[in-house]
Amino acid sequence: MSRSPVDAVADITADGTDARRLAGVIALLARPRCSSETVRSACRAVGGDGPPSQQLDEAIAQRGIVPGDEVTQLARTWRELGVRLSLVGDPTYPAALSDAWPQLDAPVVLAWRGVAPVDVACVAIVGTRRPSGYGTAVAAWLAEAVSAAGVRVVSGGAVGVDAAAHRASAEGPGGTTVVLGCGHAVDYPRQHARRGGLFDEIVAHGGTIVSELLPFEPPRAGRVRARNRIIAALAQAVVVVEGGHRSGALITAGAAAQWGRAVLAVPGDVRAAGSVAPHRLLSEGAAPCTGPGDLLDALGIDAGVLGSLTGSGNGAATHPAGSAQRAGEVFALLASSWPRPVGVEELAVRTDTPPARLLAVLTRARIDGLIVEGPDGVRLRQVPATKGSKHHSS
Amino acid sequence: MRRVLVAESSAGEAGLVDGLDVLGVRDVDEAVGVLVGSRRVRPAASPPPVRRSGGHDLADVRGQPVARRAVEVAAVGGHHLLLVGPPGAGKSMLARRLHGLLPDLTRAEAVEVAAIRSLVEGPGSVQELEVTPPLREPHRGISTAALLGGGSGVPRPGEVSLAHRGVLVMDELLETPRQTLDALREPLEQGEVTVERVRARVRFPCRLQLVAAGNACPCGNTGDTRRVCTCTHAQLHRHRGRLSGPMLDRIDLHVQLRPVAPERLAGIPDGDASVDVAERVRTARRAAVERWGPGSLVRDVPIEHVRATVRSDVIGVLSSAMEGLGLSARAFDRCLRVARTIADLDGTDTVAAEHMEEALAYRLPPIGVSA
Lengths: 394, 371
Hints:
The structure holds 2 protein chains of 2 kinds.
Chain A: H1 5-10, H2 19-29, H3 36-46, H4 52-62, H5 69-80, E1 84-87, H6 95-98, E2 109-114, E3 122-126, H7 133-148, E4 152-155, H8 161-170, E5 176-179, H9 190-193, H10 198-204, E6 208-211, H11 221-234, E7 237-240, H12 248-258, E8 262-265, H13 276-283, E9 287-288, H14 292-298, H15 304-310, H16 315-318, H17 320-326, H18 328-337, H19 344-351, H20 355-367, E10 371-374, E11 377-380
Parallel strand pairs in A: 3-4, 3-7, 4-5, 5-6, 7-8, 8-9
Antiparallel strand pairs in A: 1-2, 2-6, 10-11
Chain B: E1 3-7, H1 11-14, E2 21-25, H2 28-36, H3 65-77, E3 81-84, H4 91-101, H5 107-121, E4 135-136, H6 144-148, E5 149-150, E6 156-157, H7 159-162, E7 167-170, H8 178-190, E8 192-196, E9 201-205, E10 209-214, H9 233-242, H10 245-249, E11 253-256, H11 262-265, H12 274-292, H13 303-307, H14 312-325, H15 329-346, H16 353-361
Parallel strand pairs in B: 1-2, 3-10, 3-11, 4-7, 7-10
Antiparallel strand pairs in B: 5-6, 8-9
Helix pairs in contact in B: 3-4, 3-12, 3-15, 12-15, 15-16
């Protein structure tokens, strides 16, 4: 005796995701020869400039999709794995991706474990599965510094460069996100996906494991390629550490260019096979990445944040009370919006703070290392104490 | 020199200069007549000064209180201003309104401005003394010669000199060729530009206020939450290269604009009207004049004079903070000036920490070209 598909799906929806719509999308994806691209082209055919949710509803209705037992089965699998799902346009689905829907190839659904994949400043660190000692060390060095500056590190969860980047960033304030090239139920790569492996460790530290695929889809070449474009789209900048002449990192870089993300490459030993991909990117106009500062620069984050962090402890621990008292409302708004950045003008209007005072407060907070500022506004550098637990799935 | 004889057609123009009896004569015969005393010519009367109203009011700018504040600060100190944001965020609107906030030129300043205009427009073309500061808005495709001054054979002042004592608006600054931007650096710093031509070498004044506007990226979508940036990395890289570090350092106030969503406009209270802001600008400028003498603008006063009014503990605190935030020494000095201006707006004679913190905020926002 099975439950109704929509009820089963309701167990795995993220906050703000509609179970009925999600059940329809899963049913569509579960059909033979159907993929995220099928749904996207259906939505493009529907047209209109309505929100993605409306396009999805119309596309599902047009095709006469009725979720059946297969949806119930899939939902049960996901639930057992502790996975939740967000549809494009939902509050827990990154706006960086849904803004391009359905024109660019944003995934229709994100199945995730850990902290919801909401919008935060992200850097992708990608590279070969067989790095040199230099490659591993550079990946870890960059990842640790970036995470310490409050920026999330995204990568593909593979062995080699990816794993080095995930490990080094998992415990920092920025944290890390793994984008899988297979379903959540597939143990790949085995040493990371097994119980107590790297992925479980990442989730335990407030990280995220994402996949756009149904739980049992194996990692085929085409899917890994598709995975790479999600990595690029989630990040504001992609840095390629090491890779051969046919490296998947080149695909990630290509996708980054298509999505308008910055591409950086770490220069390597000119004699090493692993330097082919980064050096080719450099010759094609990628920016050289010679340290974490270059990466933060590409994000529009002042590299000075790094200096204040690597100095004597972090300023946040010594001053927050003073700053917070002087501008309680400003910090309250930033905390409630976390991790979304808030524009400075919006801060002034919504907290009714005179600009002169607001700017003085923000400068103080930057000097103290409490906030970071990017093209989209200001956000707290670290998870506000009141917010951290809310994002974890139970 | 008390009396001058000029061609009659130029008498009106020459009459703009204070303290001169200008006698306009038709021909040499008449000139000789005047000199030997056989003929009397009445001195040309100097015309009353004219003020033209721009008709752009700051109250039209909805929301964006921070950008409005930056415009006000810029107007007080004559500081250069850079507005970065997607199309439709109100960059040109703010640039024109800044001009509307500037107080009238003094008579002496107005004569300088008229003299430069006369060189470009030809003898006798300037017949009235305009006390509105000039507003120049050259097209972004402007040649270096047209911007800095050129002319065949005889040097002619360019846009920077035509904007002397006024505002030079450069829209799409990042689309302007790199060598043009670099050529702009020295005139901005020196307040004058040397134009060399075959037949002469002339220095023209160009104490201007630069108001630059630019898109955050070539496609213009960066900073607009409703759109996605479609630029390639190479494009972005080129775009950023246009604003070389030294050029950015010369612009005191950087403001990022985001378009205000129409549905948000409803609840936003109106900002102050231009007349009210202009009054504050006048008061604050008077403070600088009382401190350093007539015509003093915080932008142009020697930096030691500015430093003398800043409490030493403020400089100490901020220099250690700026070390961490990675600003150049030039940026430091420019921040001092902006802080001085903010203190003037505040009506205090000593620059305090909060003034410096606000000044730093106009420096710190990164230029959002990195998508």
